[in-house]
TrEMBL record:
<keyword id="KW-0143">Chaperone</keyword>
<dbReference type="InterPro" id="IPR026039">
    <property type="entry name" value="YfgM"/>
</dbReference>
<comment type="similarity">
    <text>Belongs to the YfgM family.</text>
</comment>
<keyword id="KW-0472">Membrane</keyword>
<feature type="transmembrane region" description="Helical">
    <location>
        <begin position="24"/>
        <end position="42"/>
    </location>
</feature>
<protein>
    <recommendedName>
        <fullName>Ancillary SecYEG translocon subunit</fullName>
    </recommendedName>
</protein>
<dbReference type="GO" id="GO:0044877">
    <property type="term" value="F:protein-containing complex binding"/>
</dbReference>
<dbReference type="InterPro" id="IPR018704">
    <property type="entry name" value="SecYEG/CpoB_TPR"/>
</dbReference>
<dbReference type="Pfam" id="PF09976">
    <property type="entry name" value="TPR_21"/>
</dbReference>
<dbReference type="InterPro" id="IPR011990">
    <property type="entry name" value="TPR-like_helical_dom_sf"/>
</dbReference>
<dbReference type="GO" id="GO:0005886">
    <property type="term" value="C:plasma membrane"/>
</dbReference>
<keyword id="KW-0812">Transmembrane</keyword>
<keyword id="KW-1003">Cell membrane</keyword>
<feature type="domain" description="Ancillary SecYEG translocon subunit/Cell division coordinator CpoB TPR">
    <location>
        <begin position="15"/>
        <end position="205"/>
    </location>
</feature>
<keyword id="KW-1133">Transmembrane helix</keyword>
Amino acid sequence: MEVYSNENEQVDALRRFFANNGKALVVGVVLGVGALVGWRFWSNSQDGNARVTSAAYQQVTSALDASKPQTLAAASKFASENNNTYGALASLDLAKQFVEKNQLDEAATQLQNGLKNTDDANLQAVLNLRLARIQLQQKKADDALKTLDTIKGDGWVAIIADIRGEALLSKGDTQGARDAWSKGIESDASPALKEMMQMKMNNLG
């Protein structure tokens, strides 16, 4: 009802404006109505485009199979042609497939491309967390730590602490790893994640 109420108020305002200012402003009113119609057309077009893009994303990602190069190529093409959230999600899905094929460089590239396609902070965090894990597998601990530093938000503290501990330990910084996991345990982490970090600390001796 709120939408209809606002539209009615806008129409009433146009009517009053026209009544008070006479026929001399007909052109202005027509242009205003034209702009409104144009905006609605554009909005409806955007909604339609989003639905088409969503359907295309579902199609290419549901067919993804690491053993079938053509499905990887199709998803990669979709990701490169869609500089939006769907493109970023496709890059995320592709990265998983490349990790399964142990093609870590390609997986990292997909995640980095995905980061360019979205402004959503939570999706960026997920992409960066995956990227940091891959960088660890690539023996690039310093790169992983830099990637973790870009992630903002209290909801990611525990996961960041877990990966940071792994990165620091791989560099031989046992105390740094202990401090990172301790911070993770003290955060609002899930019981399972806290237990896992506690076990890692215990293994340090």
